[in-house]
Amino acid sequence: MSATVRDSCNSFLSGVGQRLAGYLNRPSVGYTPFTPSDFDTLCRTLRSGDVLLVEGQERVSNAIKYLTQSTWSHAAMYVGDSLPVAPGTAEPHRLIEVNLGEGCVSAPLSKYALFNTRICRPIGLTPDERRAVTGFMTARIGLKYDLRNVFDLLRYFFPTPPVPVRWRRRMLAFGSGDPTRAICSSLIAQAFQSVRYPILPDMRVVKARSGSRYARREILHIRHHSLFAPRDFDLSPYFQIVKPHLAEGFDPHLLEWSAQPAPEPEQVDISAA
């Protein structure tokens, strides 16, 4: 294939990819957070290295939530004040994330002020390891999403595939050659794997010593980063779920309740439909 033909083909695929990504990034109709967000408390609670899970509202978010059977469709890493403040910006960027069509970018925390979120905190990392994890993400800002790989985009157009549940997660990794072509959680998983911090490792039992029929030990194996989804940080036994209201101290006796009963839910007459 000549260079001219190859360039034309790449240009065509990139154009198609731009259109597909633009469609998938459009907001879904009717999204409202299930509970109101307390943005100020969220800001005070987050620590560098925390994973922030987000219930997204874009079309691609609906596909990811279905394929992973989860509330969470997006993940970002909180890096604190490690990023320089860009000239002319009203708010410093404290999140690093991988977005469909963009690649690895930084973002202000206020971007998700009105979304349902969850904080997943790695436990036991040393300060140096925490800096290494956030540094891994920071060093990859600007990594582009390869829009020529249209297979990565087409998989999100089939949010309800007729395949068994156990195969749906594999669809997220289909066609993903590198972390910029995978969903957001892949690059974050690589960041933690770089310091050998577990998320959901494979566990295999092997003989502890030769000659013994009973002595066994557990060996952990790192899963491939493309197989991780946002909900894995929620399910992982090695990440603490931090709820901002409880982290600051919660006293149920200080709540003010109405003396009036809640209104009855409106009845819908389905027979008239």
Helix and strand layout, with pairings?
Elements: H1 3-24, H2 39-45, E1 51-54, H3 59-68, E2 74-78, E3 95-99, E4 103-107, E5 117-122, H4 127-138, H5 150-154, H6 165-173, H7 185-193, E6 202-207, E7 216-221, H8 231-235, E8 239-242, H9 244-247
Antiparallel strand pairs: 1-2, 1-5, 2-3, 3-4, 5-8, 6-7
What is the gist of this entry?
The chain is about 30% helix and about 15% strand. The strands form two sheets. Strands 4-3-2-1-5-8 form a six-stranded antiparallel beta sheet. Strands 6-7 form a two-stranded antiparallel sheet. It comes from Antarctobacter heliothermus.
- CATH A-level architecture: Alpha-Beta Complex
* Percentage of β-strand residues: 15-25%
Number of helices: 9
What's the number of domains?
1
Give the beta-strand count: 8
Describe this structure in words.
With 273 residues, the chain is an alpha+beta fold. The protein has one domain (3-249): endopeptidase domain like (from Nostoc punctiforme) (endopeptidase fold (from Nostoc punctiforme), Alpha-Beta Complex), CATH 3.90.1720. The chain is built from nine helices and eight strands. It has helices at 3-24, 39-45, 59-68, 127-138, 150-154, 165-173, 185-193, 231-235, 244-247; strands spanning 51-54, 74-78, 95-99, 103-107, 117-122, 202-207, 216-221, 239-242. The strands form two sheets. It has a six-stranded antiparallel beta sheet. A two-stranded antiparallel ribbon has the order 6-7. A hairpin with a 3-residue loop joins β3 and β4. Residues 214-222 have low confidence and may be disordered. This is Permuted papain-like amidase enzyme, YaeF/YiiX, C92 family.
